[in-house]
Amino acid sequence: MNVLPSPTKSALKAPHMALSHADLSRLMPMHLMISSSGAIISMGPTVPKLGLDGDLTGKGFFDLFDITRPRNITQYQDLANSDGGRLKLRLRQAPHLPMTAIAVPNGNGDGLLLNLSFGFSVVDAVQTFDLTCGDFAATDLTVEMLFLLEAKSAAQTEQKRLNERLQSA
User: Fold this and answer.
1) What is the 8-class DSSP label of residue 84?
2) What is the pLDDT of residue 46?
3) Residue 131 in contact with residue 49, Cβ under 8 Å?
4) Integer distance in angstroms from the first to the last C-alpha of the chain?
5) 129-138 per-position pLDDT tens digit
6) What are the two backbone dihedrals, phi and then psi, of residue 90, each rounded to the nearest 5 degrees?
7) Which strands, in side-by-side order, build the sheet including 111-117?
8) Total Cβ atoms within 10 A of residue 116
């Protein structure tokens, strides 16, 4: 058996990564990149489908979203200091659909990368915004969960139909 020598800690340091916008969009179709002024720099392909009138480049993040938790985040600097914790937010145009996000520095030191998710409101979001499988990351279990919910609904409908037939017999 070959045993590889143990690498030093410096050899295990993660390299600085650079992703193209296309690759980032494939990995996180619901991402936003915002500048240190709070303006949206770029977004994943699903974001414009959320009733936001297309290209959001240059629009203010806090003009489109309200952060509900933690409550003390009302401007970019608060968001930058949030230490990458989970955020709860609402799209102002669809306040009935709460969202979850995480914000991390973008790697350039001049903005943040936010990854958005619908969480428990995904079923309503799919119906509201007419989302499809392609609007979610390939590794996201949301699509599988939606298929399970659809199968459950079909099974319940069939069970109800059979019960009605039994009752009438």
Assistant:
1) T
2) 93
3) yes
4) 71
5) 999 888 998 8
6) -135, 140
7) 40-43, 31-35, 111-117, 94-105, 86-91, 65-69
8) 24
CA distance 130 to 25: 19
- Mapped onto helix, strand or coil, the DSSP state of residue 35 is strand
Instruction: Give the CA dihedral 128, 130, 136, 142, nearest 10 degrees.
Output: 60
Q: Which residues contact 111 (CB under 8 A, 6 or more apart)?
A: 33, 34, 35, 36, 41, 105
In a domain? residue 14 = no
**pLDDT at residue 2 in the model:** 65
The tokens of 49 are what? Answer: 């489908």
Q: Which residues contact 135 (CB under 8 A, 6 or more apart)?
A: 29, 30, 45, 46, 49
DSSP 42-77: EE-TTGGGTTS-S--TTSBHHHHEEEEESTT--SHH
On whether residue 9 sits in a domain, the answer given is no
Q: Which two tokens stand for residue 2?
A: 């070959």
Q: Are residues 107 and 162 in the same domain?
A: no
Place of tokens 């949301």: 142
Q: What is the mean pLDDT of residues 33-60?
A: 90
Domain encompassing residue 40:
19-138
Domain count, the chain: 2
